[in-house]
Design brief:
The structure is a homodimer. The first copy, chain A, has about 700 residues and is of the alpha/beta class. Helices cover about 40% and strands about 20% of the residues of chain A. A 7-stranded mixed β-sheet of chain A has the order 9-8-11-10-12-13-14, sandwiched between helices. In chain A, strands 20, 25, 26, 27, 28, 29 and 30 form a 7-stranded antiparallel β-sheet that branches.
């Protein structure tokens, strides 16, 4: 292992698979965290050796205790620190001296409490760095590894989960306790289960990197309250999806302003805009979930069953009503109701009673027993027109619930297509549900959840296969020229670049600015107008006049030379009246853009994700209808294409209602250039092109107004 | 009881509260429907007398059996018919002879199987009518009444539910079995539970009328696959809400075209458009639910706890993460996070540990026991700034789950504000959840469901209080004139009324048509143009030319007399070229409307709800963005107001982005007149005013084009 790789791995293999570990700060008081952790490790059959460290005890839970970590005669792989926060730095120093390179710091009372906690966190980070210790925490529930060769429950959770192929990483420790309880009841197993707390050293990105190559993990779940390194998170998710084919599911709380505020007072996290976060996660291929239930509903679909090859589903039910509800739900989730082949229709007609409905959704009727389910399911799975099967059961008086569950597991095991189940009800159907859950058939109480989970599995399959050409650096960029303009503005102490300067920056990046020049006098304006040609627009140039139109500083549609002088005077007069103190630097003479659809392009900076691009249709669409698409820069051609198609008003660009289709490819080109500009010039805080006028196909697009804030 | 009232009641009191009943067609074969029903009635402690009727048996389940219903020596209130469908008519005839006036026909094999089943259904309806028998079914699971004075389980459900104040009515019998199982596990009780099957006699509306006055019922739930009498359903729901203050919750399946088709092959139901259904149910105050879980989540909130007086909630949690998730969910559902009074802040600061978060959401911290929950909950409920409280628990190692649940029930019982709970997890928290459910604290596995249910309860409270002025018949209607035009068109065999005729109809109903006349010659056109004034529009008048613009039959913006003749010729030439066979009746000369916002108004007929009004903004808004509002006619002023505000683009009418506000009150007036027209003239199949041009406030609106299909 090279030094670089080793550094990237942050000793995570030692954290998950230690051969020996010390619980530093353990005690004998049952029901306290330091005791619970030690007891959990022992009770849950850890396969290595455990060394309690306690200044006061001779032995804890029957195991010999050591006064200090350095007293232990054997080498120690992992230190689990449970001392109170005020002495953690001392214990960590001793761990360093002992040569321990990996730690889990469970103790709370650091950054999350503010004040002195911040200092303590800085202190432990420094000590850890000095000794080359990687650590999880502080302020966490701990780490669980269900792999039988290690079987480590280094947490104060009430119980150890079953083994499984889902990994769960959480910023909130308390949520972990709820998740473990929820999962146990549904026989959902985990490969690794990590509460990473304040992530002062090892972050969710480090853990994701480890799980990417973990053969025990098939699906990765994340609960986050703050995203510190958005681009890093996105890159890691992409790597996991494309290289390992593993889906990444995530709950990001603090969606609303109020929620973000609650998160801030809880963990001190700073949130960006949630619409940006939502777009960024989608862009990275992360499946964002709204809550724990939705996350696990999706996770079991992905972890238990093959991915569907398409979106055509068959529904098999013993009751018409739920069949209708499931059909509604499937279609609402964008799935297609499969049309059976002739062969399937023939077999179902022959084998099912007359009163059964042999069309999809297949109703095997209320008195169906396991044999009828078997016929319908086997045949549906065999049908080339079917990509996946939903089986629904209601507990009617004749229904042999357990046998049917057995039959379902058997049939599913013989097919390479996914099969999901919904046994509706609760108490009576429990025996069947339990059986399905133990045998890895995803079960859902509601047909709606079943359909949504299938849709997400299908989405992931498409995501995995979809085009994702890497970002291309556009040709003909003059970075130096753009930087020069920005640096000069910065040196002059201007935070707002007037349009003429903004156009220089855009022009340097090859964005389609219109022919323009600044006139210092009426005479010059007339001369320039002759050179530029008509129709043209005239706009005030002044650092102080930010809202040019409001100040009467804009005249458009000037169609002849004779109007230029008059317009010049009237602009100066208007501005003088509205903002007498404003220093005027001239009048911008700019060619008018040809007709077209007005769109808005923008750059903004998000505290979590950095450079963000914005796109929407002009006028009411962005401001009234909030019809806007966001992406994190840089973005490749396919992603730009998806961005443009994302807005609801896209049909207007494509030529809806007899309009002529607009030049979408020139719009895509403009977005690519803007993306690069955002990356190259981080001093641009905000940039608006409002509007960019997109003409008919082949006619390009043109910047009609622009504004930059630095 | 008057005859009319008695007829309206359909003997439902006898169906729910019979003193004696006969199970007609019972047998001794355990596990069959005829046996299960009899056994259920006996086992579940029916307080009246049961008489089995069977041609073959001497006794069934230990009770003496009779060969025929007429053999029974005592009077019988209710007959439960379980014979096979082919002999039901004979049994029903005998029931009539015996003087039985109320029946539940459980037997399947009627309308739902088509063919001979349709005949059988017609036959039993006839016999029942002859003898004055009211009946539920056929093709149903039966009826349950948990009221201890009767305690009747006249169904073949596996179990009788607990007593409660929720009534459930279902078109699907199989769904009932799932619902009963689901509800039992959650200790959800029912007042009445009815599977009404094919509703050949007693409909859901009859049942709703009964439940309106049922003192045991507080909330009414409905599962429907088809709505036969939409206006009747709406009127009954309104009556229940306004007179009895009882909420009506409903699942209507067949939302999607595919689902509707599945429902059709299941029950033979014919569905209208789902967007219309959605609007109609909202208009009637019915709370539409997407699935069973959402329905019961809402029902327990409404049935167990007081309605919230406002939307300000306090959240009390023992874990920060779930507190953030709940805050997000509350805000997403439109609730407000309460700001505590100074008093509350003082008390929480004094009584909770330093590390607790005393702002809303209150975090009582992971080691909280019942006492801390008590303090936070009591104080939050006392606070005048709080309308309701959410309590969240995660099962941490110190959490005394059962004690906390006890404390919650106690505190909730002392307040008149609603309190809902979410104990996150499953197995560990089960003991607490069970306790909450038994003591009528609404419990939700997810904070999201908790917030949504609260939002619905708050919605119902506002619904109950909101203005609902009855529809007003507008003044100055000339129904006779409108009918004359329509009758003439009908007599002439025309299904499409050309614009000039459509304008006559609209004009008769006082809609703001523009000055217009039809010219038969070029000369007349010029004369008329002088009379009408400029600018004006000229449009072809021909029954065959439906798409006037496409045929080149429209010229707008004609601003002077000299253009009229030229336009006349060019229109005729265009139409002749495009549709040489079309008979031309003249050219419509119509004043141009003043400037304004284009909107579309329409009438259509829905198979379930009848006359439906449509409204949206013109151009792309309806066709591309699908931004449309629907309402069932008639509608009062408040409902018209809500309709206009419902579209996303409403801000454009109100004056967004510096526009001038438009004359919304004239638009409302136009909708009121259209509503009356739709009611008065049922022969209008479809009507479009596209566009109606709404001018600035005080300037009115004008019909610029119209089309009627009869």
């Amino acid at each position: 292992m090279s030094a670089a790789t080793k550094n990237l791995s942050k000793n995570l293999d030692t954290i998950f698979y230690p051969q020996s570990l010390a619980v530093i700060g353990a005690n004998n008081v049952a029901g306290t965290v330091p005791n619970d952790i030690l007891v959990n490790i022992l009770r849950d059959n850890y396969r290595g050796a455990v060394y309690p460290v306690s200044p006061r005890e001779q032995s804890i839970a029957g195991v010999k205790a050591y006064k200090y970590a350095i007293d232990i005669e054997d080498p120690i792989d992992l230190g689990i620190l449970v001392f109170q926060s005020s002495v953690c730095h001392l214990a960590l120093e001793q761990m360093g001296q002992k040569g321990i390179k990996a730690a889990i710091i469970v103790t709370a009372g650091f950054r999350e409490v503010g004040g002195k906690g911040l200092e303590r966190e800085a202190q432990i980070k420094e000590i850890a760095a000095k000794h080359g210790i990687s650590f999880i925490g502080p302020n966490c529930l701990g780490v669980i590894n269900t792999d039988p060769i290690c079987h480590l429950n280094a947490s104060f959770a009430r119980k150890m989960p079953e083994e499984g192929n889902i990994a769960f990483l959480s910023q909130s420790g308390a949520l972990c306790t709820a998740v473990l309880d929820y999962a146990q009841a549904k026989h959902i197993g985990f490969s690794k289960f990590v509460s990473f707390g304040n992530k002062a050293d090892i972050t969710e990105i480090d853990l994701m990197r480890y799980l990417k190559d973990d053969p025990k993990t098939k699906v990765i779940l994340l609960y986050l309250e703050e995203i510190t390194d958005g681009p890093g998170l996105m890159a890691m998710a992409r790597e996991i999806i494309s290289e390992a084919g593993k889906p990444v599911l995530m709950i990001k709380s603090g969606r609303t302003a109020e929620g973000a505020q609650a998160a801030a007072s809880h963990t001190g996290s700073l949130a960006g805009g949630d619409d940006v976060c939502d777009a960024a996660l989608r862009q990275a291929g992360i499946i964002r979930c709204g809550n724990i239930e939705e996350m696990f509903n999706t996770a079991i679909a992905l972890a238990y069953q093959p991915l569907p090859k398409g979106d055509r589903v068959a529904i098999v039910t013993n009751a018409g009503g739920p069949g209708v509800l499931a059909t509604d739900a499937a279609v609402s989730e964008g799935l297609a109701i499969a049309r059976f082949s002739e062969d399937t229709t023939k077999v179902l007609k022959k084998s099912l009673p007359n009163t059964a409905n042999i069309k999809n959704p297949v109703d095997v009727i209320g008195d169906a027993r396991a044999d009828r389910y078997n016929i319908a399911l086997s045949q549906a799975l065999k049908d080339d027109n079917v990509d996946g099967v939903f089986v629904i059961l209601t507990p009617q008086s004749m229904t042999d619930i357990e046998n049917i569950a057995q039959e379902i597991c058997m049939v599913a095991g013989q097919s390479e297509k996914p099969l999901y189940a919904s046994f509706m009800g609760e108490a009576d159907v429990a025996v069947g549900i339990d059986l399905l859950q133990r045998r890895s058939i995803p079960h859902y109480q509601l047909p709606e959840s079943m359909c949504r989970s299938f849709a997400k599995a299908h989405y992931f399959k498409e995501l995995f296969e979809r085009n994702a050409d890497p970002p291309v650096v556009p040709k003909g960029l003059n970075k130096a020229a753009a930087l020069k303009v920005l640096d000069e503005a910065s040196a002059a102490g201007n935070s707002h670049l007037p349009e003429a300067e903004a156009l220089k920056v855009l022009s340097a990046y090859g964005l389609p600015v219109l022919d323009h020049a600044v006139a210092g006098s009426k005479q010059e304006a007339v001369e320039l107008s002759r050179k530029i040609g008509f129709p043209l627009a005239m706009k005030i140039v002044s650092k102080e006049v930010i809202h040019k139109s409001d100040a009467g500083g804009v005249r458009v549609g000037i169609s002849a030379e004779k109007e230029v002088g008059k317009a010049y005077d009237s602009i100066l007069k208007n501005v003088k009246a509205k903002q007498p103190e404003a220093k005027v630097d001239g009048i911008l003479i700019e060619k008018m853009a040809p007709d077209g659809e007005e769109v808005i392009l923008g750059i903004k900076r998000d505290p979590s994700f950095g450079a963000v691009l914005m796109f929407g249709l002009g006028g009411i669409f962005v401001e009234v209808l909030k019809d806007v698409a966001f992406r994190v820069a840089p973005l490749g051609p396919d992603e730009i294409d998806r961005m443009i198609h994302e807005i609801r008003a896209y049909p207007l660009l494509a030529g809806a209602r007899g309009r002529t289709p607009k030049d979408v490819s020139s719009l895509a080109e403009a977005l690519a250039r803007l993306s690069q500009l955002a990356l190259d010039c981080p001093q641009i805080e905000e940039l608006d092109i409002n509007p960019l006028i997109v003409s008919d196909e082949g006619q390009g697009c043109h910047v009609a107004d622009a504004r930059i804030m630095i």
